[in-house]
Amino acid sequence: MVASRAAQTQLLTNWGGLLFLIGKIVRFSIFLVFLLTVSGPQKIFLGYSKQQVIIFYLIFNLMDSVSQFLFRGAYLFRNLIVTGNYDLDLLKPLPSYFRPVFGWTDILDFLTLPPLLFYLFWYLEKNFYLVSIFNLIQFFFLFAIGLTISFAFHLIICAICVLTTEIDSLILIYRDISSMGRFPIDIYPQIIQDILTFIIPIAVMMTIPAKALTGLLSWQGMIIPSLIGVFFSLISFRFWRFALRKYSSASS
């Protein structure tokens, strides 16, 4: 029902939706041209082939689009807090985080997924990447871990919104940091790699699934990302419960 209402609202605003889609396509294309230019004729980008770098970028866009489609509710959560409408959601037989995180779905991001998936697998086949069943299982498992971490990020942002009623700047900070996953994190200094892996696990969201799909990750390499995903999710739920205990409803 939530998805249906969001879709109806977005599809009724024809020009706004069309311009949004055009903007996403233009941004995607410009950065793809940038990657092709940077890697240049030598076809090597800091130890990665041009084809691998483009696959990393495609996986980043796939993760970003799926996250935006699923967790767009966080962008609208502040209004529920300041108007007091969230009080009513707490009375419903749903998890307390359902409306904040899943309360709105972006159908326009969903529309970009089929062509993106088609282009990804076409590009893999075109460049002779023989993706084995094991690599696919690794990829889908780690992609699910990445989505779990993205959910945890959005839940933490919503928790901070409960405490401070601020969310817009937090979303912008999150998106700026997550954009570092456009490239393999191996290009950054070691201390940045450690931060993006263990503290702000953007690498587990973006880089690790791409490594699995391109056959650069062993099965042992799945263990630490899985543990990080579980731990980060537990931290986000604990912080969310802490924020709810501090929440002052509009009726209080």
Quick structural summary:
This protein is mainly α. Helix content is 73%, strand content 2%. A two-stranded antiparallel sheet has the order 1-2.
What does this structure look like?
The chain has about 250 residues and is mainly α. The chain has one domain (about 1-245). The chain contains twelve helices and two strands. A two-stranded antiparallel sheet has the order 1-2. It is globular, with a radius of gyration of 19 Å. The model is unreliable at about 1-10 (pLDDT under 50).
Features:
12 helices; mainly alpha; globular; single chain; disordered N terminus; 252 residues; 2 strands
Please give the structural blueprint:
Blueprint: H1 2-12, H2 14-39, E1 44-45, E2 48-49, H3 50-70, H4 77-83, H5 86-90, H6 98-102, H7 107-126, H8 133-164, H9 168-178, H10 190-199, H11 202-213, H12 223-246
Antiparallel strand pairs: 1-2
Helix pairs in contact: 2-3, 3-7, 3-11, 8-11, 8-12
Q: Give the amount of beta strand, in percent.
A: under 5%
String of helices and strands: HHEEHHHHHHHHHH
DSSP helical segment count:
12
Rough shape? globular
Work out the count of structural domains: 1
Measured distance between first and last alpha carbons: 30 Å
Largest sheet, spatial ordering of strands: 1-2
- Percent of residues in helices: over 70%
**Which stretches are poorly predicted, pLDDT < 50 over at least 5 residues?**
2-8
Which structural category fits the helices and strands?
Answer: mainly alpha
Q: Over the alpha carbons, how many angstroms does the gyration radius reach?
A: 19 Å
Q: How would you sum up the major sheet?
A: 2 strands, antiparallel
Counting DSSP E segments of at least 2 residues, the number of strands comes to: 2
Average residue pLDDT: 84
